[in-house]
Design brief:
The protein has helices at about 30-40, 55-60, 85-100, 115-140, 145-170, 175-185, 190-215, 240-250, 250-260, 285-300, and strands spanning about 70, 105, 215-220, 260-270, 275-280. It has 2 domains: about 30-105 and about 215-300, Amidase signature (AS) domain (Amidase signature (AS) enzymes), CATH 3.90.1300.10; about 120-185, no CATH class. Strand 4 and strand 5 (about 275-280) form a beta hairpin. About 50% of the residues lie in helices and about 10% in strands. The two termini are about 30 Å apart. It has a 5-stranded mixed β-sheet.
């Protein structure tokens, strides 16, 4: 479950990206609902405060939802088809939803996928740069840190700090893609970030309007089956890597930047024994409805005891 923006307090603040949220990956709907009951709630000074549920989320998870209007898509927002395993997973989920009494039809909000990808990439560059700036501010508090930053500049100072940390920890503190994002963020202006924000907000309004016609938007969670840890080569040319990641994760970013709640439910497994998630996006503050649906799906098609095969 990825809760609505602001439902879990972003306090104390780290970097105010308004895209990230903190929660868990759980094996059961019950556990996710119980944890959200424990950690959700408004904090004075919070910028966003979604509506609170009428009953604990764990109670909602135990109750079937009313018949829902569900839209589904097996194409990303640029109109490209997903991997056959992911398309098959959504098809199976559609059959299950219809068997449970929900109305399901193929539909998706009209969005400019290319413009969204470019705008989200701008944010993606800016977010790690904000984290780097916090680290550099901490460096300046050390003896000689301010002079070091002034002489070397931000990027070279950060690389020097990384080398020191690597000697202490025995591994690189930053992944290559993170460093590449930060270096490209130096080319951005505040206006670039604001313009990207406007593009993403327009898409959020479009998704919000779409979710007044439908209760839920269903898609695959990923554009391809899960990859092995380390399988994605971060040393690829930046544009090639960015394109690979956009095709691999085409659906979840819209839940991040819109702030709408979403959940990934492991209802299907491919021939390799890997879970293929079904991704559901609901209206802002719609966690109770999502938990009702997740609980109903879990009871109809349990997954708790399933495990992917252990690699040799």
């Amino acid at each position: 479950m990825k809760p609505s923006r602001g439902l879990i307090p972003l306090f104390p603040p780290a970097t105010s990206d308004y895209v990230s949220t903190s929660f868990c990956v759980s094996r059961s709907v019950r556990d996710a609902a119980a944890l959200l009951d424990a950690v959700a709630g408004p904090v004075p000074g919070a910028r966003f405060t979604p509506p609170q549920p009428r009953a604990p989320y764990r109670e909602h998870a135990a109750v079937d939802p009313p018949p829902l209007r569900v839209a589904f898509t097996i194409h990303d927002f640029a109109g490209e088809p997903v991997h056959p395993d992911c398309a098959a997973a959504v098809s199976n989920t559609v059959f299950l939803l219809e068997a449970l009494g929900h109305h399901v039809e193929e539909a998706a909000p009209e969005l400019d996928g290319a413009a969204l990808a470019e705008a989200f990439l701008t944010w993606w560059k800016a977010m790690p740069q904000a984290g780097f700036l916090q680290i550099l501010d901490a460096v300046e508090q050390r003896r000689g840190g301010k002079a070091l930053r002034r002489i070397l500049g931000d990027v070279r100072t950060m690389r020097a700090v990384a080398r020191i940390d690597k000697r202490r920890a025995g591994k690189d503190p930053f992944e290559p893609f993170t460093l590449a994002l930060v270096e490209r963020a130096l080319e951005l202006t505040p206006g670039d970030v604001l313009l990207a924000t406007t593009t993403l907000q327009a898409a959020s309004y479009a998704l919000g309007a779409f979710l007044t016609e439908y209760d839920i938007l269903l898609s695959p969670t990923l554009g391809e089956p899960p990859k092995r840890i380390g399988e994605i080569d971060q040393t690829l040319p930046f544009d090639e890597l960015e394109d690979l990641l956009s095709r691999y994760v085409p659906f979840t970013p819209i839940a991040n930047f819109s702030g709408f709640p979403a959940m990934s439910v492991p209802l299907a497994w491919n021939d390799a024994g890997l879970p293929i998630g079904s991704h559901f996006i609901g209206p802002h503050g719609g966690e109770a409805l999502l938990f009702q649906l997740a609980g109903q799906l879990e009871r109809a098609h349990p997954w708790f005891g399933k495990r992917p095969p252990t690699p040799a």
